[in-house]
Amino acid sequence: MLDDMDRRLLRYWQADPSLTPGELADHCNMTPGKAARRIARMQEDGVLQGVSAVIDWAALGYTVEVSLRITLDKTQSSAFDDFLTQARTVPEVTEIQTFLGRVDVRLNVIARDMTHYQQVYRAGILTLPHIADIEALMQVARIKAQEALPL
Amino acid sequence: MIDLDTTDRDILRALSRDASQSASALGRRFGLSQPATWRRIRRLEEAGVIRGRRLRLDAEKLGFGVTVFLGIKLATKGRVSLEDFERAVSAIPEVQTVEHVLGLYDYRLRVVARDLPDFERVLRRRIMTLPGAGEVEANVLLSEERLAGPI
Predict the structure, then answer these.
(1) CATH fold of B6-46, please?
(2) Tally of domains in chain A
């Protein structure tokens, strides 16, 4: 299980994921070897799955970001599987979440502009199977985006 | 806006999957020298295409068994300061992301908690008491996948 030192490592690393292992060890007052061993162990245990580069789609010209909240027609037993399989093939879909609640699935969709969004929505989204209802939330601003865990 | 060629796209896709790969390892994979790869990564960072890096942690293994997506409507639009609301909501450690959105709700939140009772505590003591918070809808996350997007 994790101890306080592990949590401390993760806390610092989460706050600045671009830190090198050496810098990280420095911040935590650990020797680089000790820090590296702890990191390796957390990777083995699957606690730490990796580090990903976060893409700013707006910098690539995708200025529209919409959260689509979808309710599925659950009278079809394969509704979730059919829907998810096909949703994965839409390139503009960047995230898929499923829920317990009023909403069944959420798709995060990006587009270059509103005209492009309309095309994606009509050709890629509305044609997905078993949709009972869709609501859209259009992103105005990202206020907090780190996605850190409160360790 | 930055123009990307096929190699840039390959590098970007590889880094969004695993940002810990070295420039030389990536270069070998895509037939580039280490300095050439490094220059390309640098350019992606400087253009803001790579917004940063994110640690992928297994929330459940770290004791956060529940993730909830919240939609929040402000109760008294016009009379509450958005800045006050945003500052207060961003300061809650369990709140991982905050987005200002247009549509059925005004804000979209991603919240983690140890379990459902812990979530209820965060919701009642910290979120419902925010300045201006009105109607709240909660959907409990069951599964999540992140896709490569239109690179």
Answers:
(1) Arc Repressor Mutant, subunit A (1.10.10)
(2) 2
Write out the residue range of the structural domain in which residue A21 sits: 4-44
Alpha carbons A56 and A119: distance in angstroms, whole number: 22
Q: Using one digit for the tens of pLDDT, what is the confidence trace for A45-59? A: 999 999 999 999 999
Question: Can you tell me the mean pLDDT for A137-145?
Answer: 96
Region B66-140: CATH code: 3.30.70.920
Cβ–Cβ below 8 Å for B150 and A136: no
Show the CA angle centred on residue B58, arms to residues B92 and B148, nearest 5°: 95
Please, what is the angle between helix B23-30 and helix B6-17, to 10°?
Answer: 130
**How does DSSP classify residue A112?**
S
Nearest residue to B131 via CA among B69, B71, B89, B70: B89
What are the chain A neighbours of B126 within 8 Å (beta carbons)? none
Asked if residue A98 has pLDDT above 80, the reply is: yes
What are the tens digits of pLDDT across the range B54-101?
Answer: 999 999 999 999 999 999 999 876 667 899 999 999 999 999 999 999
Instruction: Examine the domain organization and report whether A30 and A79 are in the same domain.
Output: no
What was the pLDDT predicted at B78?
66
> What are B14-25's pLDDT values in tens digits?
999 999 899 999
Of A143, A137, A146, the C-alpha closest to A67 is: A137
**Residue A149: which of B146, B57, B35, B87 has the closest Cα?**
B57
The one-character DSSP state at B23 is H
Q: Which of A94, A143, A147 is nearest residue B90 as measured by Cβ atoms?
A: A143
